[in-house]
Amino acid sequence: MLARTAERWMTWVAAVAGPLVVTAVLVRFSHQVQRDYVFIYLGLVAVVGVIRGLWPALVCAGISFLLVDWFFVQPLYTFTIADEQDIVNLIAFLAVAVVVGLLASRRRQTLLQFESLTRQLQEANSELIRLNKEQAEAASAALRLARSEQQVKSLQESDRLRRELLANVSHELRTPLGTILTESTDVADAGGETKTKLDVIAIEAKRLKALVDDMLDMAVIETGALELDLVPLDLGDAIDAAADRLHRASADRKVEWDPSSAHVAVLADWDRLGQIFDNLLSNADRFAPAGTPIMLRVSREEPGLVTIRVSDRGPGIPPEIRERIFERFFRGESDGKVGSTGLGLAIVKGLVEAHAGTIAVEEGAEPGAIFRFTIPQTPAQ
Which of 377, 250, 209 is nearest to 308 (CA)? Predict the structure, then answer.
């Protein structure tokens, strides 16, 4: 703002002072026809018009007219004009000065308009470059998004087909496995080597059936087709039944739990809750050293939820695999024992979350693994 004001004042100073400076120089010289000096003033008017515009040029022409009349037209030093020819000359000078100033001003305006148009074209060009760049980036992003969507759809379709195949294969395997188990265990009068072979067949068939059951359960959980029969039940009864089942499979393993804190009503599916306990107790039995008990603790730490912790005195779970322990087919070392299918803990996670609970691995003060999960209490409590 200050720069524009200073420029405006300099314009008018040049229009007024320019003729004065030219006059101060010319009066020092003598010329036969001093009227010829008007051409110098015309040049000055033209310069002012080109540089500063019309009005400064008109002011410069008016001042130049008065100075020429005063200093160079007879009689000198008066505004009286003796010769009619001088009057015509001065009027012609003023007219020419006005015309020169007007033309110079128009030329200046044309230059300013040209500069403005040039700037607008440059800005428009820059804007077009920016828009083209953004359009190219948007097109590239749209292409990447389309490819990503296509890949996601392809992966979803592959996952759907895999789950359907898994469910169908698991379902179809159940019938022949049931027949093998029935026929191999019903041969009561077999003895010797035949009985031994039939026992091996029965054991392997049971292992295969467990794998098929786990695969089918995992397929049901992943497809969201799991149906729960949620009823109020006593958590202590579920723990007692699970401990009894583990004792039949592993007679030397003891399960320690406090019935006084465990007899609390929860809203759960009896069979699926039993499956949760069976998998966690079986996992602890596989990893815990012989002769050590499995501890099971029940508490109420969150409103509306019952917290259950299943812990053992085994080697524990390294921190680097705690995030992966609930993944499908993830297996840990089990001290030379036959490992699981790698689906047990993934099924447990799915079943717990289906009950609106959570499950995680905790770190305790003593060696061993601690699995903490929650089950909702009945609304009455």
Answer: 377
What are residue 233's DSSP bridge partners?
266
Sheet arrangement for strand 305-311:
255-257, 294-299, 305-311, 370-376, 359-362
**CB-neighbour burial class of residue 120 (10 A; exposed 0-12, middle 13-18, buried 19+):** exposed
User: Which CATH superfamily is 231-376 part of?
Assistant: Histidine kinase-like ATPase, C-terminal domain (3.30.565.10)
Residue 295: φ, ψ to 5°: -100, 135
Q: Helices marked H in the chain — which ranges?
A: 2-26, 38-52, 54-72, 84-185, 192-222, 235-249, 259-262, 270-287, 344-354
Cis peptide before 75 (omega within 30 of 0): yes
DSSP letters for 226-265: -----EEEEHHHHHHHHHHHHHHH-TT--EEE-HHHH--E
pLDDT one-digit tens code per residue, 64-88: 777 777 777 777 777 776 666 666 6
pTM greater than 0.85 (yes/no): no
- Burial-class residue 94 by CB neighbours within 10 Å (0-12, 13-18, 19+): buried
Straight-line distance from the first to the last Cα atom of the chain, in angstroms, rounded to the nearest whole number: 77
Can you give the length of the chain in residues?
Answer: 381
Query: Which pair of structure tokens corresponds to residue 65?
Result: 């007219």
Residues of the chain with pLDDT under 70: 1-8, 11, 30-38, 49-54, 81-94, 96-98, 100-105, 107-108, 158, 161-193, 195, 197, 331-341, 380-381
- Which residues, in sequence order, are CB contacts of 275 under 8 Å at separation 6+? 217, 347, 348, 351
Q: Give me the amino acid identity at 109.
A: Q
Amino acid found at 97 = A
Q: What does the alpha-carbon distance between residue 337 and residue 316 come to, in Å, rounded to a whole number?
A: 16
Are the beta carbons of 265 and 239 closer than 8 angstroms? Answer: no
Closest CA to 352 of 284, 287, 268, 290: 268
In DSSP notation, 89-154 reads HHHHHHHHHHHHHHHHHHHHHHHHHHHHHHHHHHHHHHHHHHHHHHHHHHHHHHHHHHHHHHHHHH
Q: 344-354 and 270-287 helices cross at what angle (nearest 10)?
A: 150
